[in-house]
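Deliverable D2.4 — example input (structure tokens):
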């Protein structure tokens, strides 16, 4: 494959749009007829680039989008993306005019916000479409499930407010058979029933993230909110056997320097690594923890060059890190490392791969945080 590089930097995140489209198709095919797919593309599409990914995801069949902040929603609207768009938690009152002007639906959880939202919509002669967020047990956001009926009774005096959806979020969807999951689901179903019995239109009913979409198909209701899965990653090893996905992000860099120091030469801050053998090469890669290559990974990961794994050695710096080539042994057949060689820090090179899960495990975190981190500063190259 012809390699595309960014103009001004020898480090980048490669985003495979074909894989993204394929993953959207795979999720869409897993849904029953009429169930909508809401693509969750908060945090710049989990680091993959929100605008570009949104366009592909919609073209591939997603029905709606969700983000975490109003600014994320505005970025999409300004790029001409016009599908229904939800902000997953209630934003500040000051953002209301932006929401109304750009037809962005907020999650609503307080009376004060809801009424101000309705007033503003009335002023502009528009409908104030919102989704009611219900806390069924995660204790993060939403109206407590016991209060949902009273809350709706308060809101429905306002003629401009229109409930386009009612949703909750599971805390343990990645643990099938979990008792807390069942309890949250029961509370959610009871609340919907109660609201409907009292004559309220709940709009689209939705509660599933990626894990629940795959592991608990009975909870799809009207729409599934899938984030991580679209980017080809699994929220738990349990979903691996249920759905086949292709990772969308790879992280690459070109070697900027190669030296062959004397034995026992220190490498990087603190000199936590010292060269061990004559002929050992130390190569520099121009990316570091400010690019999401977490400092906690120092000395614990491998980088692929010419299809072979090399140890990352020494402390990972803010903007640089080093890798080591043994003079013999594992890399005996390989050509020595050279300036300009492409190194894969996450992704596949030949027969070998480094996955977001490998990095997450080495850093003591989850794959979500790994891809979000790589999205922070690296230029995205779309292929
Ligand atoms: C982030 C988020 C999702 C998507 O979660 P994934 O595990 O990435 O699928 C869905 N719903 C809410 C409320 C979220 O915050």
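Example output (designed residues):
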């Amino acid at each position: 494959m012809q390699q595309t590089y960014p103009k001004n930097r020898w480090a980048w995140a490669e985003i495979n749009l074909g894989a993204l489209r394929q993953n959207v198709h795979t999720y869409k095919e897993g849904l029953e007829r009429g169930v909508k797919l809401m693509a969750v593309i908060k945090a710049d599409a989990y680091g993959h680039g929100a605008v570009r990914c949104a366009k592909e995801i919609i073209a591939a069949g997603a029905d709606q989008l969700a983000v975490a902040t109003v600014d994320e929603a505005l970025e999409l609207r300004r790029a001409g993306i016009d599908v229904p768009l939800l902000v997953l938690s209630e934003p500040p009152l000051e953002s209301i005019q932006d929401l109304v002007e750009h037809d962005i639906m907020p999650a609503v959880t307080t009376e004060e916000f809801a009424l101000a939202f309705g007033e503003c919509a009335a002023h502009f002669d528009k409908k104030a479409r919102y989704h009611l967020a219900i806390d069924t047990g995660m204790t993060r956001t939403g109206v407590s499930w016991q209060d949902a009926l009273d809350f709706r009774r308060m809101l429905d005096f306002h003629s401009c407010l229109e409930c386009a959806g009612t949703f909750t979020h599971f805390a343990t969807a990645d643990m099938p058979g979990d008792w807390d999951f069942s309890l949250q689901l029961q509370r959610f179903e009871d609340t919907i029933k109660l609201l409907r019995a009292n004559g309220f239109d709940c709009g689209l009913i939705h509660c599933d993230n990626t894990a629940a979409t795959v592991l608990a198909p009975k909870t799809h209701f009207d729409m599934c909110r899938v984030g991580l899965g679209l980017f080809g990653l699994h929220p738990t090893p349990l979903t691996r056997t249920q759905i086949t996905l292709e990772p969308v992000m790879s992280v690459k860099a070109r070697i900027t320097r190669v030296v062959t120091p004397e034995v026992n030469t220190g490498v990087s801050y603190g000199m936590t690594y010292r060269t061990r053998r004559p002929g050992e090469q130390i190569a520099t890669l121009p990316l570091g923890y400010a690019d999401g290559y977490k400092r906690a990974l120092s000395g614990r990961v491998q980088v692929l060059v010419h299809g072979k794994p090399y140890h990352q050695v020494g402390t990972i710096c803010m903007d640089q890190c080093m890798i080591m080539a043994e003079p013999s042994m594992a890399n005996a057949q390989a050509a020595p490392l050279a300036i300009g060689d492409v190194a894969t820090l996450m992704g596949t090179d030949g027969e070998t791969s480094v996955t977001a899960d490998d990095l997450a495990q080495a850093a003591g975190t989850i794959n979500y945080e790994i891809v979000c981190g790589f999205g922070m500063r690296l230029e995205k190259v779309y292929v």
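The longest strand covers residues 128-135.
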